[in-house]
Automatic annotation (TrEMBL):
EC number: 3.4.-.-
Name under which the protein is recorded: Dipeptidase
GO MF annotation list: dipeptidase activity
Family annotation (Pfam families): Peptidase_C69 (PF03577)
Record key words, sorted: Dipeptidase, Hydrolase, Protease, Signal
PANTHER family assigned to the protein according to its UniProt record, in alphabetical order: LD30995P, SECERNIN
Domain of life assignment: Bacteria
Swiss-Prot/TrEMBL catalytic activity: an L-aminoacyl-L-amino acid + H2O = 2 an L-alpha-amino acid
InterPro entries for the chain: Peptidase_C69 (IPR005322)
Native organism taxonomy: Bacteria, Pseudomonadati, Bacteroidota, Bacteroidia, Bacteroidales
Amino acid sequence: MFKRPLITFIAAIAATSAAIACTSLIATPGATADNSVMITYAADSHNLYGELYSKPAADHAPGAMREVRDWDTGRYLGEIPEISHTYATVGNMNEHGLAISESTWGGHEELVDTTGIIDYGSLIYITLERAKTAREAIKVMTDLVNKYGYASSGESFSIADDKEAWIMELIGKGSKEKGAVWVARRIPDGMISGHANHPRIHKFPLDDPETLYSPDVIDFARKQGYYKGKDKDFDFSLAYAVTDFGALRGCDARVWSFFNRHASGMDKYLQWINEGDTEAVMPLWVKPDSALTVRDMQWAMRDHFEDTPFDMTQDIGAGPFKVPYRWRPMTFTVDGTEYTHERAIATQQTGFTFVAQLRDQVPAPMKGILWFGVDDANTCVYVPIYCCVTEVPYCYAHGNGDMLTLSWDAAFWVHNYVANQAYNRYSQMIPDIRRVQNSLEDAMEQAVAETEAQVMSLPADRQRRELSMFSDYWANRATREFKQLGDYLFVKYLDGNIKKETSPGVFKRTPEGQCEYPQFGGYSDEYFRSVANDAGERLKVKQPEKIK
């Protein structure tokens, strides 16, 4: 068993980065039904506003500089020279179908470079402006941090193009030494992978062209006292990260749940998740039992450990309405014993989420589709945003509301309107949400196929225009229909009651036109039993002695 002090991981990482507790899943060609590459992302933060970033392609004069601001805080970090031409970006994808996502894992605090000017968020968005492929992106990213210093803590990146997907894990060298130590591995075709706030690369081959690493990744660990063994036995994750209960149960468990959903035999890795047994370290990738679709990846992002030992709907914390959410703080103490809530992939504090679908057998304007959603992945609608879009749909646009300014035109606020009602009475409301969510996503999936067939033979500029209008239409339609869903939920479940309906979405009236008397939703049997056990003597129905 691997033993380290049980540092409260969630508390430790909460002090570092706003968008820190994120999840990214990966599926490669051969593991996907359409032979595309797919990576996902949930940008989870309690103060991140969900919007779609965008920057047009541009030419830059010699001597032009690019300002760098910390992605999480907006704090000015410095400036770097601009390159002659930068590519257009939309969200975490660029015009060439390159996509990058991340998850933060902290690691040794002394390795944060307080003098560096490239934070992890800026590293992603600068790279999207400068690279066309995943391998180019790895070089751009490592060159940037080596030259300008890395201003963040340990990070895992999913880096993918239309042919391959990589995981790169990177951490700085502290303020006394510029640059970073890192390792990157290509996920083989036919495999799925993922990372969730803990580095997933353990031992790696030293002479494999599909594995890249900084020349000093092992020597630096020795110099710092993190590792003493032979090169061939070096484990990046154990050397540079803090592997404790929170890292395993709060982080690797999310990846395990994704694997378990799509591959047989995953129970054997529960020894790693629950006990840190290094003889049962979960592999970086596994082969799925069947090929995954875009919808599979969307549903993987909606996971709450359902039907696993960590199922969040099955303990008393779920309450009478089987709510698979737990409010922060993550850990709590009762009678001197520390406990934790489960941390699932789907969580309430998501700013934005996506499934990037990258394809190599289609025209350039449709190489990449960013299936984009805002707020909780479980209750969002994933909308297809093509890599060629020239304008962000208004419902996702910067300046349309913010974290302190409600806007009914903003998809972020509309989706929160729906989700936050469901958090109170989840088991009752989620079927209504699924009805609208599935209807929209089914319709968009069909519309994508039909529209691409129609525009396939058009000139590239016409394709870009048509696909941009297509993305704009569906983004605004989904937002509009979810606002209607939020209004419907508010009316239907008012005051703890449930209005009767003649059909879904149509409320029942009496012959005189009045509201039909509502149903009482009540509570679950488990809830009634817990109340009886806690306050049964006081609440028990009795006949007073004098009336008998």
